[in-house]
Amino acid sequence: MANKVGRAGTGVVLKNDESLDDLMIGDLKIIQKKKGFRFTLDAVLLGHFATVKEADRVVDLGTGTGVIPLILSTRAALGQVIGVELQAEMAEMAQRTMEYNKLGNLIRIVQGDLKEIHKVIGGGQYNLVIVNPPYYLPGHGMASPAESKAVSRHQLECSLEDIVHSASKLLNYQGRFALIYPAERMADLFALLRSYKLEPRLLRFIHSYRERPSRLMLVEARKSAPPKLRILPPLIIYKKPGEYEAEILSWYGKEVEHAEEK
Questions:
Q1: pLDDT at residue number 4
Q2: What is this structure's pTM?
Q3: Domains of the chain, earliest start first
Q4: Which residues contact 50 (CB under 8 A, 6 or more apart)?
């Protein structure tokens, strides 16, 4: 069973196990599973961090529900955005989200393995590659029984090196690679980036509260760029329990609901 939910002229169908949620940016909506993988606050932070410029060609690796391409589409007049998703059901759902929002001409969802995606969409021609990668190695952390969640959180189908290697293949000279990753693994990440000629250029630590240590960081690297790392002011999420800091509120407004954390 399914219901049509599309705006006039789209004819998009919403399945019974899905919800249509307000992204609270403009008039954008996103289709998600009621149970299973749903986009997280991490993706929102990354979508607002990456440097975007007019006419950029962008690839989002492991796009999931397609939330990052949606956010990026509001930040600049981009040239083209491709969301790459391994899981066929997730890719099909993300494509319906783009059709619902009448963004199908700008954002294209491609179902495929990121390790080989350069053979499908072409390499060396993108200005920005962005990824909210799985954080946990197999056997570490609590794996979700839902396959879509497990693949998004654990490195079951690809390693961090696979992701970095793919980004390096896709980017043009001086192209940018943005990701969010555990702060405690910064040294390992930077070494891996440099091994694929991706030089870390921007770094921002994320703190749940001002007085707490950083758990995550936002990093942007540039291909074949000279060393020159700029450390930005920390990003504080909460002023107090249940109340976002002003920067977060500036994106969504006071009525924003708390996104599930990865």
A1: 59
A2: 0.87
A3: 38-252 (3.40.50.150)
A4: 72, 128, 130, 176, 178, 220
